[in-house]
Inverse folding.
């Protein structure tokens, strides 16, 4: 797999997972490009580096293994204006015209107003990175794209049809067709990042169904983020959720542990267990819905503190251990 | 952490109780529970006697169901079981006790179509609606949803059938988009570029090249290269058909923008206690300040509330270790303290259960501390912005009672 498109509902940790996946793919000495398309500088914040320009910079080294040193992870923030200028220069040698065009609002028009064009410029940049070659060898072993949220992913990737509504012929159509070949090739997969809550799971299911309906765009893994171990054995969960835990047991246990904080503590802890059990049961239902899709599911642990580079490596290892990368 | 000043508390009840408050805009990044908060505020206001309409952009089926509606559409629907219920807004003149709640979901294409139909004669309207460029613009342009949300807000305000409108803003990649997008679209629709593009269609043929300045040839040249001639033709037809509406678009965008700054409008920024969400919230607060838009405060949603808050994570873990040690000792068969050589089955069970409870508790305390640190970054930067916390719910909201529970966080003088 060469192009990994990472999507997910807002708040599920899409950018974090894209970063961890890029690191995981860079193990064994492979060269990886991590690409951002929404202009939020999320990658720079994640890797704690200064804001990234429209050029490929090395930002990290993948984890090494016994056999190999870790490969390089490069990052690129692709914005539609720069992509358009690059496109104009590459195909028409028109770069110097850019300023004049910007003044007239042409860039604004082309990159934000004309539907689909913005997307084809961004996916086009990813396709270019995927296809780039040094001699006979591909320049990047893998490209990871931190893509738009699940609600927009189908439209974002289905560039040909979006653009062909607008342009039946013409140069941009030709460009879109080339991009589409990469997106619909077996080398490209779309991963869905979610947490075990109703709305993000629903959006994941909708997103997978949308890709199926479009045809030819492959859904990859479902990455369940921020999972926590169960506090209680499965058998006790239901009782805890129903508030039927024996508080006398807790009171006894607390006493044995030397915590004599009065009768309130056992009750409060019982409430905590009950709340967690309810959440866990609800999450289990959501996990079943995800499993039913038949897509492979991967679990990433909850990280209570700020996500720093060390945490990213931890997540990258978790992905590798589960053979997600 | 400990030395930080507490921000003032946001008094949502006073805000919704104040009859001068006519519009509440809930904004924030995606995934923070903005829509649910908007609905909870609307419900609470209705139950305090206001006639409320909640305008949402989020097609969350569950939320519609929680308000007893099978689905939401572009027309406000009365929510049953709230205030005066069916009697609703007509009965509202006399007393405060009989509020009502309506809810609707923005259909951006429908709203755009309606503007066109309102402002153009039937023939021309049909021509515009059939234009391929219009169809793309009205259904997929990134700013259309924001623009139409603001347009709908303007319509609801002009209709003057509700005394409080609660708006849930679109889930933009950046919360700020919703302030910029309407202006951007309006600027485009009556901008220089479109006027340039329409010119040849009006003058006809190739004669325009002589009439217009040289720069124009280059612009169309480049646009033709990028988009192809057929797209440009669609745009030109669209623009000339729309010509009569240009003034209207600008005016409407200005009207809603002014509405947002008018007295009676308040912004609530919604965030979860996470880095990303609070960073967006920070930008938004600064931007509102810059635009002189009235910010009421920050709603910190899904905050971890720990019932046994007086037991620290450290003590909790230490106690769990004591129990663990005793259990290991018991398994060794000897020296398990007072209980002697064997542990009763029920006692062992009690210890296991307590260990689980203590470890879970420590984890929750640590999470709560991490959330406080994150929220502290925000309050340090914006010490004067009032804040209210809404506790995380163990389950998703399923019904009006669920929304009411969220609203309870706004209780005065907690």
């Amino acid at each position: 797999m060469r192009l990994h498109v990472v999507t997910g509902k807002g708040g599920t940790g899409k950018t974090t997972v894209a970063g961890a996946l890029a690191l995981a793919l860079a193990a064994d000495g492979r060269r990886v490009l991590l690409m951002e398309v929404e202009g939020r500088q999320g990658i720079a914040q994640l890797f704690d580096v200064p804001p990234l320009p429209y050029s490929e910079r090395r930002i990290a080294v993948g984890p090494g293994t016994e056999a190999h040193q870790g490969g390089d992870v490069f990052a690129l923030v692709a914005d539609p204006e720069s992509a358009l200028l690059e496109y104009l220069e590459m195909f028409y040698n028109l770069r110097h015209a850019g300023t004049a065009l910007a003044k007239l609002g042409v860039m604004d028009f082309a990159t934000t107003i004309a539907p689909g064009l913005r997307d084809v410029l961004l996916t086009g940049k990813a396709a270019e990175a995927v296809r780039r070659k040094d001699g006979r060898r591909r320049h990047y072993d893998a490209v990871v794209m931190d893509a738009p949220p699940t609600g927009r992913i189908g439209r974002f990737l289905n560039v040909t049809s979006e653009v062909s509504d607008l342009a039946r012929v013409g140069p941009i159509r030709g460009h879109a067709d080339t991009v589409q070949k990469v997106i619909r090739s077996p080398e490209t997969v779309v991963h869905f990042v979610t947490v075990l809550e109703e709305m993000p799971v629903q959006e994941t299911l909708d997103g997978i169904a949308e890709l199926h309906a479009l045809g030819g765009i492959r859904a990859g893994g479902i990455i369940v983020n921020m999972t926590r171990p169960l506090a209680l054995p499965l058998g006790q969960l239901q009782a805890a959720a129903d508030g039927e835990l024996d508080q006398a047991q807790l009171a006894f246990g607390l006493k044995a542990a030397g915590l004599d904080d009065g009768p309130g503590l056992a009750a409060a802890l019982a409430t905590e267990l009950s709340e967690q059990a309810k959440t866990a049961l609800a999450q289990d239902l959501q996990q079943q819905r995800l499993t039913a899709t038949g897509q492979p599911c991967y679990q990433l642990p909850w990280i209570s503190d700020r996500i720093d580079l060390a945490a990213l490596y931890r997540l990258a290892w978790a992905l590798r251990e589960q053979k997600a990368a | 952490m400990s030395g930080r000043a507490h921000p003032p508390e946001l008094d949502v009840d006073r805000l919704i109780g104040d009859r001068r408050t006519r519009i509440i805009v809930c904004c924030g990044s995606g995934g923070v529970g903005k829509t649910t908060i908007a609905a909870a505020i609307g419900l609470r206001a209705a139950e305090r006697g206001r006639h409320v309409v909640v305008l949402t952009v989020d097609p969350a089926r569950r939320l519609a169901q929680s308000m007893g509606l099978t689905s939401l559409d572009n027309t406000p629907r009365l929510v049953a079981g709230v205030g005066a219920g069916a009697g609703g807004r007509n009965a509202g003149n006399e007393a405060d006790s009989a509020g009502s709640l309506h809810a609707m979901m923005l259909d951006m294409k429908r709203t755009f179509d309606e503007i066109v139909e309102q402002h153009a004669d039937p023939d021309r309207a049909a021509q515009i609606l059939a234009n391929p460029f219009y169809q793309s613009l009205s259904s997929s342009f990134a700013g259309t949803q924001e623009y139409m949300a603001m347009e709908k807000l303007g319509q609801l305000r002009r209709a003057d059938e509700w005394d409080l409108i609660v708006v849930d803003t679109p889930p933009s990649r950046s919360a700020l988009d919703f302030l910029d997008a309407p202006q951007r679209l309006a600027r485009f629709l009556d901008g220089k570029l479109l006027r340039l593009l329409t010119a040849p269609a009006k003058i006809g043929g190739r004669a325009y090249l002589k009439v217009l300045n040289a720069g124009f040839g280059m612009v169309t040249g480049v646009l033709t290269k990028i988009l192809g001639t057929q797209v440009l033709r669609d745009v030109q037809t669209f623009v000339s058909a729309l010509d009569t509406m240009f003034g209207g678009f600008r005016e409407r965008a200005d009207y809603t923008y002014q509405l947002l700054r008018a007295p009676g409008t308040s912004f609530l920024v919604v965030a979860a206690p996470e880095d990303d969400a609070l960073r967006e919230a920070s930008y938004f607060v600064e931007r509102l300040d810059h635009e002189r838009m009235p910010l009421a405060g920050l709603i910190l949603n899904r905050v971890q509330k720990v019932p046994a808050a007086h037991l620290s994570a450290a003590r909790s873990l230490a106690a769990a270790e004591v129990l663990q040690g005793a259990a290991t000792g018991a398994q060794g068969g000897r020296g398990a303290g007072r209980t002697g050589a064997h542990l009763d089955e029920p006692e062992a069970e009690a210890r296991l259960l307590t260990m689980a409870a203590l470890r879970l508790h420590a984890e929750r305390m640590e999470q709560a501390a991490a959330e406080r640190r994150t929220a502290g970054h925000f309050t340090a930067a914006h010490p004067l912005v009032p804040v209210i916390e809404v506790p995380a719910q163990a389950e998703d909201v399923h019904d009006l009672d669920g929304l009411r529970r969220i609203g309870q966080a706004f209780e005065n003088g907690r």
About this structure: Residues 313-369 of chain B form one domain. Residues 85-96, 201-212, 333-341 of chain B have pLDDT under 50 and may be disordered. Residues 345-381 of chain B form the longest helix (37 residues). Chain B touches chain A through 80 residues (CB under 8 Å).
